[in-house]
Design a protein that fits this description.
This protein is of the alpha/beta class and 271 residues long. It is 40% helix and 22% strand. The strands form 2 sheets. Strands 1, 2, 3, 4, 5, 6, 8, 10 and 11 form a 9-stranded mixed sheet that branches. It has a two-stranded antiparallel ribbon with strand order 7-9. The termini are far apart.
């Protein structure tokens, strides 16, 4: 099996059918053997019925794991990774839509650059606007700015969008990495329910001695629903803050990146 695509579904009726169909079509267009593993996290919006119909349509490709409640992003994805058999993993949000150019481009790039552990494409909104999907490792100060000023950061951030370069981390809306990464460092940290599990995993890859690349020549539409975006307090914001505190304590830094980069023997960053 070439690729295992792992998708989480939680009240994603608006997106899930297109997400699955685009993955299956991309496998076919690239002539890849692939599987789509969807973890259904207790949706109540009719998503379950859509997935059951898709299972009948794609019985050899689609495998749905049905859970009774929302178990977050880490436990769910770990379930899927344990069930997967592909040589490469694609982690994909249900509101992100794969295409053959991104799929083949990422896998070819990883095959040619063994020093890299994970790659991520450029993410754009449906209207073509750039999405702030890559960044330097967070600090307490930077996370406060991102929480209150994400839209402004998306339009003013001084980030190279045109060339391939190393990045600290990419959000997990679309990742690709080889199975060997998972076998060596394991799955996502289940002490984090919702976020920043993606930052933590990327940092663990850097600690493993592998690099992470941003591939802007491959562009993917991500119809982002960020449930913790903006100045509002809800369950997901609380869980995000809780996860951040755990992350900072775990990796032993808070307000600047100098000590972290020194431990990683890393000097290039995006601040």
């Amino acid at each position: 099996m070439d690729i295992s695509a792992i998708v989480l579904s939680f009240n994603s009726k608006q997106f899930i059918e297109k997400c699955v169909r685009d993955l299956v079509k991309s496998f076919d267009d690239c002539d890849f053997q692939g599987e789509v593993i969807v973890v259904e996290n207790g949706s109540t919006d009719g998503c379950v019925e859509i997935l059951k119909q898709l299972e009948l349509e794609f019985p050899e490709v689609l495998n749905v794991i049905y859970l009774e409640k929302n178990t977050g992003t880490t436990y769910s994805r770990n379930l899927a990774m344990r069930a997967s058999i592909g040589e490469y993993f694609v982690i994909l949000d249900s509101d992100a839509y794969m295409n053959q150019f991104v799929l083949k481009g990422m896998i070819d790039w990883l095959r040619q650059h063994e020093e890299y552990g994970l790659v991520a494409p450029q993410l754009i909104f449906p209207d073509g606007r750039y999405q702030l999907s890559i960044d330097s490792f967070p600090t307490v100060t930077r996370k406060i700015r991102r929480f209150f000023m994400l839209k402004q950061m998306e339009t003013t951030q001084n980030i190279d969008l045109d060339s391939v370069h190393d990045i600290d981390y990419a959000i997990s809306a679309c990742w690709m990495f080889h199975r060997s990464i998972y076998e060596y460092i394991g799955g996502l940290d289940e002490n984090i329910f919702y976020a920043p599990e993606d930052v933590d995993y990327c940092l663990r890859i850097w600690k493993h001695g592998k690099k992470i690349a941003y591939l802007p020549m491959y562009s993917l539409v991500h119809d982002a629903r960020e449930v913790s975006r903006g100045f509002k307090f809800n369950k997901f914001v609380y869980l995000h803050v809780k996860g951040l505190m755990y992350y900072f304590i775990k990796h032993r830094y808070f307000f600047n990146l100098k000590s972290l980069y020194k431990r990683l023997n890393k000097t290039v960053h995006m601040e």
